[in-house]
Amino acid sequence: MGGDTGGIERVYRRRRGLPWPQLVLWAVLGGNAFIQATRFDDPYAYHDGPPGWAPLTVSLLMVATFVRVALEQVRAHTLVTASGITVQGRLRSRSWAWHEVYDIRVEQAPRGTGPQGPRWLTYLYDNEGRRHLLWHLDDWQLGDPYAEVSELCLSAAPYRSLAWEPRPEVEARILRGAARRKAWKWAANSALGVLAAMFVVDFWEIIDGRPDHPFLLLVCVPLVSFGVLGAVLDRYWTGRPPLSPAPRP
Q1: Worst-scoring range by mean pLDDT, 9-18, 27-36, 177-186?
Q2: For residue 216, is it within any domain?
Q3: Is 16 within a domain?
Q4: Domain of 206?
């Protein structure tokens, strides 16, 4: 790229592929789910199980997951220029001028720590406190994302009309957004626990010779629990006053 841009023009793309253990684990889990779904539909199996929608549903979910991961690896990237930041997602792109960027922060990945995949991700916060992922600006693709973000913010300072300083009203919105994400994450984990319990209930009904209700137990109950618990926790946590400002890198 030409021109005097002060070294700010950068493109963050995939430099390192997904770890093989993670890919193998996904393949095993997806294959097992498909086998179980088709086995349930086998007329010679111990149980009729779900109707014919089960194999099709599992197959569609597997294909959607594969396409999603492939687009993340091949298409998604982050472009930084003197004009601002452009994030190319799986299908569409979005841009922010520098005066629309409130902050850039490195945060722990929601999947937790571990050697398989990134442990730290980078997010752009706009002036409304909304968070947006900056693709491939993480510790899986870069050696030190903290140093990269610090240098990026320093290089971008001349192109901004505002200093990199916290504003209380934006920090409050950021904290509410974090509380909302926490609420729905807890709801999702709880729904998985409910799903496991419903598998046990469904299996017990089969063993006991009672009529089973797989769609009700394995689909409706977990979805309802997810929605109800998420709404309750969201209302509770986002309604509490913030205790402290969000951390800055």
Answers
A1: 27-36
A2: yes
A3: yes
A4: 168-238
61/49: higher pLDDT: 61
Q: In this structure, what DSSP letter does residue 7 have?
A: T
pLDDT for the residue numbered 11 = 93
In a domain, 22, yes or no: yes
The answer, yes or no, to whether residue 77 has pLDDT greater than 50, is yes
Q: Let me know whether 130 and 192 are in one domain.
A: no
Q: Is residue 245 part of a domain?
A: no
Q: Output the pTM of the full model.
A: 0.75
Please tell me the predicted confidence (pLDDT) of residue 209. Answer: 81
Instruction: Give how far Cα 47 sits from Cα of 37, 51, 204, Å.
Output: 12, 11, 12
Q: Following DSSP, what letter does each residue of 185-206 receive, concatenated?
A: HHHHHHHHHHHHHHHHHHHHHH
The token pair at 62 is 């597997």
Q: Do 24 and 121 sit in the same domain of this protein?
A: yes
Are the C-beta atoms of 48 and 39 separated by less than 8 Å?
no
Question: CB neighbours of 141 closer than 8 A, spacing ≥ 6?
Answer: 12, 14, 15, 16, 118
105/118: higher pLDDT: 105
Element (H, E) at 174: helix 168-207
Are 191 and 225 contacting, i.e. CB atoms less than 8 angstroms apart? Answer: yes
CB atoms within 10 A of CB 131: 17
Tell whether 61 and 104 lie within a shared domain. Answer: yes
DSSP secondary structure letters along 73-135:
HHT-EEEEETTEEEEE-SS-EEEEEGGGEEEEEEEE-TT-S-SSS-SEEEEEEETT--EEE-T
Domain count, the chain: 2
Token pair, residue 131, equals: 């968070």
Q: What is the model's pLDDT at position 45?
A: 46
